[in-house]
Amino acid sequence: MLPMQEQGGIMPMRGAITASSVISVLLSALLTSVLAADLDAFLAGTSRNCMECDLAGRDLTQRDFKRAKLDRANLRKADLSGASLFRASLVRTDLSGANLKDANLNLVDAKWAEFGGADLREALLYEADLASANLAQADLTGARLGRARLNQANLEGAKLARTDLRGARLAGARLKGADLRAAKLDSQNLRGMDLAGIDFSMGDMVEADLSGADLHGANLAGVNLFGARLNGADLRGSNLEGANLENAILTDAQLAGANFDAAIMPNGKRAE
């Protein structure tokens, strides 16, 4: 009876498995063909959809990709300098090591995108959604990030000198080792954040909320902190030489070892 059972039961099952494998191969080939067609149409400018496309290392300088859908695309080390990605969708897109110098990324949706080590110097990122994006070691020198969403973003070791971050949302962002020299952070909410050791020298932090922030060893030399809230902040060992602290609130701040040489104090008088 066993041979009959093999003939009537097991063999058809093997046939079904073989058929399933063939279908899988055909579907995979079809998907590859569709993606290739999407890529060609995208590069030809006849399509704005290139989701999951492989564009790694491509020269895309000065290209117009406004409102393009590039979710989960691979753009590692691609050259997008001067390109327009205005309102593009870049959710979970890999742009690590990409050249985006002078690119227009205003209003992009780049949640969870990978920008590690990318060149974003002088890029336009006004109202960009970069929530939970990885920007570790990225160069954002001179970038315009006004009203950008950087909630939970990783900015560790990023170069943010001369960036405009006014109105940006930084709640939960990681900034350890970032360079924020001459950055514009007026009215920024940095309450309770870990900002220890960061270089903010010559920046603007007018009326910024730094209450409860860890600024231990931070460089705040020459920073305009007019009206800033520093109550409960840890300023131990920080450098505030020449800073403007007029009207700032320092209630319960930890000040041991802080340098206030030539700083304008909350009462408007310059420290001796």
What would you say this structure looks like, in words?
With 272 residues, the protein is an all-alpha fold. The chain has a domain at 1-47. The chain contains one helix and no strands. The longest helix is centred in the first third of the chain and has 43 residues, at 2-44. The protein is elongated. The protein starts with a helix and ends in a 228-residue tail after the last helix.
- Helical fraction equals 10-25%
Computed over alpha carbons, the radius of gyration is: 26 Å
Straight-line distance between termini: 104 Å
Count of distinct strands: 0
- Write down the overall geometry: elongated
What percentage of the residues does DSSP assign to strands (E)?
under 5%
Structural class: mainly alpha
The main sheet comes to: none
Low-confidence stretches: 29-34
Element pattern in H and E: H
How is the topology of this model organized?
Elements: H1 2-44
Short description:
The chain is mainly α and 272 residues long. The protein contains 1 helix and no strands.
